[in-house]
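Our collaborator T.R. sent over the components below with a one-line note: 'Predict the complex.' Nothing else. No constraints on interfaces, no templates requested, no preferences about which chain binds where. So this is a plain run: every listed entity goes in together, and whatever single assembly comes back becomes the starting point for the next discussion.
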Amino acid sequence: MTFESLGIIETSSVSASLKILFGIQKEKEIKIVGKEILGGGIVTLFIKGNLGAIKRAIAFGRQNLISNDEFRSSHIIPLPHQQLLLKFDLEKK
Amino acid sequence: MINSIGLIESKGLVALIEAADVILKNSPVKILGIKKLENGLVSLAVQGNSDYVKAAVDAGVEAGKRVGEIYSYSVIDNPNEEFLKIFGELFAEVEINKTVESKTKSEKTDIKVQNKIEDIFPAKVVNRLESKREKSKPILTTQAVQAKIVRKSSDQKSEKIKPQKPIDAPEKNLETELNPKQDEAAENIKPVSTIERLRLEALGQNKKSLTERTTKNENESEEDEINKIDLSLEPKDIDFNSIEKMNVHKLRNYARKFPEFPIKGREISRANRDELVKLFKNLSK
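Returned assembly:
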């Protein structure tokens, strides 16, 4: 069994999220599981994979975007509940 | 207060997902769904026991505030049906039937309890319990048991019963002889009520009694004829036909009338019927 952890990155615009995606591409132990475009320009990215890789990805995003106030918030769930993944449609690998 | 609904609303998904994860990991509560609103607002609905829901919402809000913005939160205890309808419209994933379980739960539990009872107790006991509730219904189990017993007894005592059958046979014949009359009466007057049935039965009994009386009259008539013969007889003439019909006592009295009879006095009273008949035959010779 591979215990994959979940990372969530929230940005205040679509362009900011694309920037993060571009930066994350280098990490090979990460999969982008889903995205949510809420109203008001808020875009959420869901990342699944190794815990260390997710931490690196989030750090990269925070370093690049915090200056522009495009980075809203981020969070890492090391061992997400199965029900949570089912409810948010994040179970695909 | 079994069912209550908790709601958490946040700006951005991060706080909400953190809250949902904390809730799922720490409390026995079911997540109903997530609703996306305008301007980056997202709301989460949670269902379960009221105390658990309150605790879960508090924990989720605390966890969400650490990460992002929690806009508002609330707990609704014992929601109304109309509220649930509107709630179902808001949350497309919410299944209304599941939220209204509180009313249907009692029926389901009854069924479960019955199944358990059937598992624990055999069907006979359940039938008895039901029969106690409804006394008009007969107990099936006892009937089956009686039938079995009857069969066994008939098999075992069949040899003992056989010699008794010829004794019972004439009575049955009488009944069969009487039955057709009853059947004719029944055909003439169809029994609608129990009273008429009883009347017919009573009439049948009357017929029986009548037939018995007739048989008795016939016996009495024979006795009268014998007595008449006795009176009419002269001492010198011996009627063997009458002697064969007579009793022992009558024979003795008859013998005392003959002065030529070989035995006299107490010897006649001690003598048997056969001896008396032999002596009569000797006299005739």
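Summary for T.R.: The first strand of chain B starts at residue 4 and ends at 11.
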